[in-house]
Specification:
Strand content: 25-35%
Number of strands: 7
Pfam families: SNase (PF00565)
Keywords: Membrane, Transmembrane, Transmembrane helix
Shape: elongated
Largest sheet: 5 strands, mixed, barrel
CATH architecture of the largest domain: Beta Barrel
Number of helices: 3
Radius of gyration: 22 Å
Protein name: TNase-like domain-containing protein
CATH topology of the largest domain: OB fold (Dihydrolipoamide Acetyltransferase, E2P)
Order of helices and strands: HEEEEHEEHE
Distance between the termini: 82 Å
Length: about 160
């Protein structure tokens, strides 16, 4: 006699339901990813926001780094935080910029990275596009929490008052 137990109808139904749910979840993610990727250029890489480090740097998960890595957003510069800030006003503006960006990039949100490269610190550099197609740089600059930046010497934040 075989010592194996036979599966009853309830157990078979339960396994079948788990398979159906798994397939449905995968199809749903694939459809959402296809929709977002189709809005971007062919070089766009989808990524998930793990957390906001500061106004222009975020920890993201993507196919090349599923556990996550920092990405520095291109085309804008936000004030420095902590010891890197040159004055108290810059520290305050840094906190405001980071708080604003957290509203645009909540944990788990999907973004597209394009124009990808590396900076001198080894961080990923990329243009960041929100899931709805808006350019992140335009949003943060438009909120007067960032200055346009394309490399080179950065403008200072001390003595600028409330507007950059």
């Amino acid at each position: 006699m075989a010592s194996g137990r036979r599966e009853g109808p309830a157990m078979k139904l339960g396994k079948f339901m788990i398979q159906i749910i798994t397939i449905a979840a995968f199809v749903g993610m694939a459809v959402k990813l296809f929709t977002v990727v189709s809005m971007a250029s062919p070089q766009a890489t989808p990524a998930r926001i793990l957390w906001v480090i500061d106004g222009d740097t975020y920890q993201v998960s993507h196919a090349g780094a599923p556990a996550g890595e920092p990405v520095r957003a291109r085309h804008f510069d936000t004030p420095e935080k902590g010891d890197r800030a040159r004055c108290e006003a810059e520290r305050v503006r840094s906190a405001e910029a980071a708080a604003f960006v957290r509203t645009l990039l909540p944990r788990g949100s999907l973004v597209l990275l394009s124009d990808i490269g590396r900076d001198r610190y080894g961080r990923l550099l990329a243009t960041v596009t929100l899931e709805d197609g808006r350019d992140l740089a335009g949003q943060v600059i438009g909120a007067e929490l960032a200055l346009p930046y394309e490399g080179g010497r950065k403008q200072g934040w001390c003595g600028l008052g409330r507007s950059p």
